[in-house]
């Protein structure tokens, strides 16, 4: 399935080809988000306003840096830019220009001394690359992680440092339709996973990164030790709750269901979110490799123009009191954005629209932003 937008055949977030899934249920345990003492439990709602603060070239990812008030935005076409118009890094001559390729993710080390980009090269393969950064110049480029991609789609691309200080990396299942290589359930590949690594270990001895000793598959024969969670199709965007440390993952569906997955803070990792044994909560194909965890949010593809889930953040800012403690997410094609109280996710309500919503961002102060593939960067405000 493809969609023509803004003159670009763009499918980075879109489900692709394959025959419809057989409708059959599957078991699993769903972790239930619990409210922290700071969370508002009111179900009051309002409208949001989206104020354009910058215009970029196909913005797809967002980050902030310690001690720096500027916002950093990754353009799919290859540049990392700031909200005041500066170009920090330009990979436009190196990135592949396919539908689901290019510069896809950005994150800063908690110290602010290093920045990381996730991008696909001219052959379509994934790199996670580090630069030393002093706020003015990006120097000392170093490849941290490389992953061959068998197909041009489902590259994931999200990067984020977790509350534990480790770098989390999203990789899709490698592409095509239906996960023909079975990567989602295969612990012997990094594809279809969220990884957890330390890219700046002390005394790394020339190694590009180290694997935390408490990663769930350390010591498991045949398993890649970098894996933190698996059973994912295309985890395009994920984010941590800045108050609780909970992890929210938007996983783009195949033919039937979009889903949001959830990992509570304190998890020891190793969750299996089901793909390709199932899509959403329904049987798809393939064989599961362990007990599967149910998504906490699902919604049907195609209905109302739905095509690709965009996961956001739990709102922890102060400027929109009624939104406190609610999780924001949206859909790329339909454009709607919904807010759901974290302890009542079935009570999500639409709070606004952004055409070609590609990502959300979170500022130092907990205020949220929305990116449109059409170019605008929006600050989310009370309506």
TrEMBL record:
Task: Give the top-rank taxon of the lineage listed in the UniProt record for this protein.
Answer: Bacteria
**Sorted UniProt keywords:** Signal
Composition bias of kind Polar residues appears in 35-44
UniProt-annotated stretches for the region Disordered: 20-46
Quote the Gene3D superfamilies the UniProt record gives: TolB, C-terminal domain (2.120.10.30)
InterPro entries annotated for this entry? 6-blade_b-propeller_TolB-like (IPR011042), Glc/Sorbosone_DH (IPR012938), Quinoprot_gluc/sorb_DH_b-prop (IPR011041)
Start and end residues of each Glucose/Sorbosone dehydrogenase domain:
57-372
Reply yes or no: does the keyword Signal apply.
Answer: yes
Secretion signal: which residues? 1-17
What is this protein's record name? Glucose/arabinose dehydrogenase, beta-propeller fold
The major lineage groups are: Bacteria, Bacillati, Actinomycetota, Actinomycetes, Streptosporangiales
């Amino acid at each position: 399935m493809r969609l023509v937008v803004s003159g670009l055949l763009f499918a980075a977030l879109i489900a692709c080809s394959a025959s419809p899934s057989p409708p059959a249920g599957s078991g699993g345990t769903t972790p239930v988000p619990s409210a922290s003492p700071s969370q508002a439990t009111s179900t009051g709602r309002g409208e949001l306003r989206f104020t354009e603060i910058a215009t970029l070239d196909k913005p797809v990812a967002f980050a902030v840096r310690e001690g720096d008030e500027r916002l950093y935005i990754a353009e799919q076409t290859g540049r990392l830019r700031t909200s005041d118009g500066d170009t920090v890094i330009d990979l436009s001559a190196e990135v592949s220009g396919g539908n689901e390729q290019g510069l896809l993710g950005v994150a800063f080390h908690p110290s602010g001394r290093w920045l990381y980009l996730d991008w696909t090269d001219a052959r379509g393969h994934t790199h996670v690359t580090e630069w030393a950064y002093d706020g003015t110049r990006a120097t000392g480029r170093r490849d941290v992680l490389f992953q061959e991609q068998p197909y041009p789609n489902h590259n994931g691309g999200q990067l984020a440092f977790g509350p534990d200080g480790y770098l989390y990396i999203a990789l899709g299942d490698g592409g095509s339709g239906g996960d023909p290589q079975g990567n989602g359930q295969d612990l012997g590949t990094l594809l279809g996973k969220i990884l957890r690594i330390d890219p700046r270990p002390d005394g790394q001895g020339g190694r590009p990164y180290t694997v935390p000793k408490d990663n769930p598959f350390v010591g498991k024969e045949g398993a890649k030790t970098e894996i933190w969670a698996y059973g994912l199709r295309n985890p395009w965007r994920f984010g941590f709750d800045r108050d609780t440390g909970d992890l929210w993952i938007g996983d783009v569906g195949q033919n039937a269901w979009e889903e949001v997955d959830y990992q509570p803070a304190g998890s020891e990792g190793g969750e299996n979110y089901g793909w390709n044994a199932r899509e959403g909560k329904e049987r798809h194909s393939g064989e599961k490799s362990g007990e599967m965890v149910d998504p906490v949010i699902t919604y049907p593809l195609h209905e109302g123009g739905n095509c690709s889930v965009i996961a956001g953040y739990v709102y922890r800012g102060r400027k929109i009191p009624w939104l406190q403690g609610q999780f924001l997410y949206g859909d790329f094609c339909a454009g709607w954005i919904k807010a759901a109280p974290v302890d009542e996710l079935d009570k999500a309500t639409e709070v606004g629209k952004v055409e070609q919503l590609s990502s959300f961002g979170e500022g130092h102060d907990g205020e949220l932003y929305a990116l449109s593939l059409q170019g605008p960067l929006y600050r989310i405000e009370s309506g």
